[in-house]
Specification:
The chain has 447 residues and is an alpha/beta fold. The protein is 37% helix and 16% strand. It contains 15 helices and 16 strands. The strands form 3 sheets. A 7-stranded mixed β-sheet has the order 4-11-10-9-8-5-6, with helices on both faces. The chain is globular and about 70 Å long. It binds pyridoxal-5'-phosphate (PLP). The site of pyridoxal-5'-phosphate has 14 residues, from helix 5.
Length: 447
């Protein structure tokens, strides 16, 4: 199939080098299972689940049917002061999957909105308890929490922040990054064991500097996804939980990538055995088919917010926040069908199994190739780090991304990392193709 009947004059592409794209367009017109079809009729393996979204693979009939049926039944209904049956059902399913007393789902439409929602809940919760002075947030260097001003502020990817200066939230600090390129460049499907206690910095420097009684929340990704799949040291999240508990600080896990199966468990919180106070999700919850995101809050947070209004009249709103499309019935119908499909096909466990296959194949074929200075795998994701080309950071990985694309594999370049995170339905043969195409592209790089 070849299809070229469109102009490319009017779309400004997100997070994309637009001038380069215009010279070498990469356009999909169809997708099924593990593959895309391009406008010029080629097949491309989706090696990244379309940015960590399409866990169940493309074009899944139960999800598509649920959407079509919902459109014919209740297309849309406002979310304010009324609701819809699918939003309650989706929330019930998500709460049942979430650990411990994470029971109350605030829906939104994206991971960025989830980040800002969770930060706002943190401030409102502390204020409801009479601790409105707790307004400092702590993120982590190279963390990614989307592109809203809240998420950007707690995020730590320099290129995403540098243009916005004092427009970022003022009372934010960052934990140091969780990577040691000398001792732990290669992380093969397990947690790296650090001799150093990396969280001493939080206890001994960051918290005393601000005074812990002023800190509202710490927000981290269980595994740093967008930066290039960096795995925290063993015990890190447990210790972070303990420090937060000691000082009454909320802990937010941004599980937009790790949520719904990527590590072989429902959430990163399950893999690590650590329960946050809020858990942000998006992407895989609808298999990426329709935008939906949310924050699962603990019962304790919800109760505090309701309790603070105990003496207020019944018509008083407890939390002035929400989106026109919060709990959109079509998105929630897609979520219900997606979560059922994950369960029916046991796809989280499959992600765990295929993660080992991906990791073995990647370490076998890529370690030792020129320019490769690190490989990190955990769950069904693996990143290969290249030495930056002097004076041109990111160039080598971009060249490899282009080369792979033209040879039928979509890989994600993030800085000088190349990341694979295929759908959970991936087969051994797809992994072999992805890894050999990547290896050849790396070998073709100029010295
Ligand atoms: C951890 C994390 N949080 C938030 C986001 C932002 O999500 P969205 O692009 O849906 O706004 C992303 C996107 O990749 C993410 O990885």
């Amino acid at each position: 199939m070849a299809y070229n009947e469109f102009k490319m004059d009017n779309q400004w592409l997100p997070f994309t080098p637009n001038r380069s794209f215009a010279k070498d367009p990469r356009i999909f017109v169809a997708a099924d299972g593990m593959h895309f079809t391009t406008h010029d009729g080629r097949q491309v393996i989706d090696g990244i689940s379309s940015l960590w979204c399409v866990g169940a693979g493309h074009n899944r009939k139960p999800i598509n049917d649920a959407i079509k049926q919902q459109l014919d039944t209740l297309d849309y209904a406002t979310a304010f002061s009324v609701s819809n049956d699918k939003a309650f059902k989706a929330a019930e399913m998500i709460a049942a999957m979430a650990p411990g007393d994470l029971n109350k789902v605030l829906f939104c439409n994206s991971g960025s909105e989830a980040a800002d929602t969770s930060l706002k809940v943190a401030l409102a919760y502390h204020r409801a308890r009479g601790e409105g002075h707790r307004n400092i947030f702590i993120g982590r260097e190279r963390g990614y929490h989307g592109v809203g001003f809240g998420g950007m502020s707690v995020g730590g990817i320099p290129a995403n922040r540098k243009v916005y200066g004092t427009s970022l939230l003022p009372r934010v600090d960052h934990l140091r990054f969780i990577h040691d390129p000398l001792k732990h460049a290669f992380v093969q499907h397990q947690e790296p064991v650090w001799e150093e206690d990396i969280l001493l910095e939080l206890e001994n420097r960051i918290l005393p500097l601000h005074d812990p009684s002023n800190v509202a929340a710490v927000i981290v990704e269980p595994v740093a996804g967008s930066a290039g799949w960096y795995v925290p040291p063993k015990g890190y999240l447990k210790r972070l939980r303990e420090i937060c508990d000691k000082h009454g600080i909320l802990l937010i896990f941004d599980e937009v990538i790790t949520g719904f199966g990527r590590l072989g468990t429902a959430f990163g919180a399950d893999w690590y055995g650590v329960q946050p106070d809020m858990l942000n999700f998006a992407k895989c919850v609808t298999n990426g088919v329709i935008p939906l995101g949310g924050v699962v809050c603990s019962q304790r947070i919800y109760d505090a917010m309701m309790g603070a209004h105990g003496s207020a009249p019944d018509h008083a709103i407890e939390f002035f926040h929400g989106y026109t499309y919060s709990g959109h019935p079509v998105a929630c119908a897609a979520a219900i069908a997606t979560l059922e499909l994950f369960q029916q096909e046991n796809l989280f466990a499959r992600a765990g199994q295929m993660g080992q296959v991906l990791s073995d194949a990647m370490f076998g074929a890529i370690k030792g190739l020129p320019h490769v200075i690190g490989i990190r795998s955990l769950g069904l994701a693996c990143a290969v780090e290249l030495a930056p080309q002097p004076g041109m950071p990111g160039k080598r990985a971009f060249d490899v991304f282009l080369d792979c694309f033209h040879r039928g594999v979509l890989v994600r370049n993030a800085g000088d990392n190349l990341v694979f995170a295929p759908p959970y339905i991936v087969e051994r043969e797809h992994i072999e193709t992805m890894v050999s195409v990547l290896a050849d592209a790396i070998k073709r790089l100029p010295a």
